Amino acid sequence: ITLTVKERRPILGKIIDGKMVPSQLGERVAEAWRNISSLFPEVEPCECVVMPEHVHGIIWVHKRLKSPLGEVVRSFKIACTKANAALENPALFDGSPTFWFPGLDDTILFSKGQLKRMAAYIRQNVERRWAVMQNPELFKVTRSISLPNDKRCDAVGNHFLLDATDKMLIQVSRKASESEIAEIIEKAILDGERGGVVVSGCISPGEQAVAKAIREASLPLIAIIPRGFGPYFKPSGDYFTACANGKLLMLSPFKPITKTERLTRERCFAINALAAEIYGNDPAAIRYQGCQPSTQALHHLH
Fold first, then answer.
1. d(CA 178, CA 186)
2. Within 10 A of 221 (CB to CB), how many other CB atoms are there?
3. How far, in Å, CA of 191 to CA of 164, rounded?
4. Rounded to 5 degrees, what are φ and ψ at 63?
5. Given the DSSP bridges, would you call strands 43-50 and 54-61 parallel, antiparallel or unpaired?
6. Do 245 and 214 contact (CB within 8 A), yes or no?
7. Residues 91-142: tens digit of each pLDDT
8. HSE-up (13 A, CA, CB side) for residue 36
9. Closest Cα to residue 20, out of 61, 53, 65?
10. Whose CA is closest to 268, among 248, 283, 279?
């Protein structure tokens, strides 16, 4: 569950030297979270982090609820509002102590390992925010930067990686064997250790494996992102770590699409063509699974 404060005002505390220091209201919010099961014994409040202007938390539903989950969240919000109103100097919005933005964002954790990953995400939330605070430019979405041949795209990360003179283009066929992929990974890591920058569209499983190995080795990577950057885009997992360390540049020539929208073949061709141009190759020479992209392969670039 994610709940956000109205106007994103940081009334729940501050992050100082990498640690969250809650305000009085922030402490009351954490207490209200812990007390959820006193009214709803069917659920257990689990991992939770109170951030300056939002809250992330996991609710474990042990048995069928008599009322919708929204009622559990509504009860929590009411408890927070009462706690705010009881403060000597409550935070007011248009004269009201009600401070949560209407509604909620929720994700049902079905898949194996999903709960563990989400709990880790919540625990590391303050650390990630602190990293962003220390290096805000590395996490800012920059719109329409200039690329070779007058191309333009959006970017997140270390822009200086584009200036590297030694780049290694990674384009791996979906038919590549495990041993072939392992050999490419070995070469890419060696090149990175010598100061090279890997460039990849990260489309095929082999390309994704190489990019993952490069990130885990904390070596520089330029990755083409196929779904664009929405207004609240932020990298996660090892992408976040690589970004914070200045080892990653994410580029996207596309307007944002959702995770459920299918990646078209033309978009995949455009990604590979852009990676080739950044590397310095002629995109017209690209062969992908034995096919050649049309002259309109870059049509989607903006």
1. 12
2. 30
3. 13
4. -155, 165
5. antiparallel
6. no
7. 999 999 999 999 888 989 988 888 998 999 899 999 989 988 988 889 999 9
8. 25
9. 53
10. 283
